Amino acid sequence: MGKITEQDIIDSVAGACQYISYYHPEDFVEGMVEAYEKEQSEAAKNAIGQILINSKMCAMGHRPLCQDTGSINIFVKVGLKADLDISRELEDILNDGVAKGYTDPDNTLRFSVVSDPAGERKNTKNNTPAVIHMSVDNGDTIDITVAAKGGGSENKSKFAVLNPSDSIYDWVMENVRQMGAGWCPPGILGIGIGGNPEKSMLLAKESLMSHVDIHELKERGPQNALEELRLRLYEDINKIGTGAQGLGGLTTLLDVKILDYPCHAASLPVAMIPNCAATRHIHFELKGDGAAKFNKPDLDIWPDLEIPMDTVKKVNIEDLTKENLSQYKSGDTLLLSGKILTARDAAHKRIVEYKNAGKPLPNGVDLKDRFIYYVGPVDPVRDEKVGPAGPTTSTRMDKFTKDMMEIGIMGMIGKAERKQPTIDLIKEYKSMYLIATGGAAYLISQSITDSKIVAFEDMGMEAIYEFEVKDMPVTVAVDTEGTSIHTTGPAKWRTI
Fold first, then answer.
1. Which residues touch 323 (CB under 8 Å, ≥6 apart)?
2. CA distance 172 to 176
3. pLDDT tens-digit profile of 439-481?
4. 162, 191, 239, 349: which could form a disulfide with 166 (CB 3.0–4.6 Å)?
């Protein structure tokens, strides 16, 4: 073989970033298809169906599976016998590959990485730096795994140092019960056990890079304590009834992955990290014969699905008032048409600052009687009005909800559950909280017929946009009476 060059590494990492942005791993698709076929909860089945429709659309259209195109994690194993033709730090070369992948004009990806995280939190404008883990072996290749992890699932990561006599099973089950749906289930749970604090977290993350194979384990039966724990957690977490998007159902997890490492006799470090419905990773080797080549999956692995329309209610936003919102109940599926505004964390913070200062928003923007969609869209390409535009986790906006209600918004659109004080505010102000399907960003973007920035343009994807939507699929999560589907749904399907 020839030399492994800087350009080979850059092109391979860039290609990997692009590839995983629009192709789910085939084993993950197969797991989702199985979950769809066996799901008995109508709401959860509809959500899984939307995720699969979105997945096939992205595979065909080469656009991101999720508007949160993630921060990049790279696992690199460098062979000591590899013939490297590089003149810079390998870390810099890998980051150049990430930057190239994320700034590709044919498929723009969202820049989510900010520098000075405890201070200015300024966007780096190319999604670098990646989080890079390097090791060496005696081989003659460079072994690389590239993964994109969205903020919703990363934010649900947990770590603890248990006593050696404590139950890992009990700790995981307790945390999963509290995890909610902000990580966008169905997905995969990665667990790391042992080593020390940083090692167990790394093991949990690394475990998520392996294939979905829980059914093979079930068929042959567990052969050691880790496999017994893995199978028990998989079966019992699905009995909790969280279901797809937290709507209640049979499948919350497609698999549980566990890696372990020897640890101090006085310690039991344990970490857990979920992978969401936009699971994205790929593995390749560089051998000195050029950049990595990535094979296109067979489109036949995706079923041909359609969103069921028999129970869907079409709603014109312009016809909605605080007086007639009560006709829509928790669990109703709606197709929204009309104009909505967007705002995420940074925009909410600035809106409240304007409110407290008694200042009107720029450009005459008025939030009264408007629906606010929690989204940071991907930039459009070609003739798109907007790029993939799925919902972000709504609980991050809970701290701003009272101010937004006082301003007079009519309702909110996001994903996952709301905290009880926010539910109480929704009931008090006779408002409504709707959810769109996390992991269906490209599908949702097809319902957006026009898009323009109306305030805070300096914030990039955090700016306030006005979207005009036509038949945007949403579910009533919290109605005007304060009934939450994220409470009633899982309760119906919980068996443990």
1. none
2. 6
3. 999 999 999 999 999 999 999 889 999 999 999 999 999 999 9
4. 162
Record the tokens describing residue 33, joined without a space: 């298809």
Beta bridge partners of 259: 192
Residues 273, 346, 321: CA angle, nearest 5 degrees: 105
Q: Residue by residue, what is the 3-state secondary structure of 189-242?
A: EEEEEECCHHHHHHHHHHHCCCCCCHHHHHHHCCCCHHHHHHHHHHHHHHHCCC
Cα–Cα dist 417/180, whole Å: 7
- Using only the alpha carbons of the chain, give its radius of gyration: 23
Residue among 433, 462, 468 nearest 447 (CA): 468
Q: Are 107 and 18 in contact (CB under 8 A)?
A: yes
Number of neighbouring beta carbons within 10 Å of residue 352: 17
Query: What structural domains and CATH numbers belong to the chain?
Result: 1-148+282-306 (no CATH), 151-277 (no CATH), 312-493 (3.20.130.10)
Distance CA 453, CA 376 (A): 12
Q: Both tokens of residue 401?
A: 């909800």
State how far the Cα of 84 lies from the Cα of 6, in Å rounded to an integer: 8
pLDDT in tens, 287-328: 999 999 999 999 999 999 988 877 889 999 999 998 999 999
Look at residues 115, 47, 132 and name the one whose alpha carbon lies nearest to residue 331: 47
Give DSSP secondary structure letters for 38-87. H---HHHHHHHHHHHHHHHHHHHHT--SSS---EEEEEEEEETT--EE--
DSSP state of 442: H
User: Among candidates 205, 200, 72, which has minimal Cα distance to 131?
Assistant: 72
Q: Fill in the DSSP letter of residue 415.
A: B
CA distances from 433 to 385, 451, 465, 478 (A): 25, 22, 19, 5
The length of the chain in residues reads 496
Partners of 474 in the β-ladder? 334
The region, left, alpha or beta by phi > 0 then psi within -120 to 50, assigned to residue 384 is beta
Place of tokens 């701290």: 399
* Cα 229 to the center of its chain, rounded Å: 26
Convert the pLDDT of each residue in 223-256 to its tens digit. Answer: 999 999 999 999 999 999 999 999 999 999 999 9
Q: Is 77 buried (19+), middle (13-18) or exposed (0-12) by CB count in 10 A?
A: middle
CA-nearest of 117, 227, 251, 184 to 416 is 184
The residues pairing with 122 across neighbouring beta strands, listed in sequence order, are: 115
- Per-residue tokens: 289: 């014969």
| Cis upstream peptide for 129 (omega within 30°) | yes
Cα(336)–Cα(324) distance, integer angstroms: 15
Closest to 314 measured CA to CA, from 92, 202, 473: 473
Residue located via tokens 């997905």: 187
Residue pair 462/345 in contact by the 8 Å Cβ criterion: yes
C-alpha 443/C-alpha 53 separation (Å) is: 7
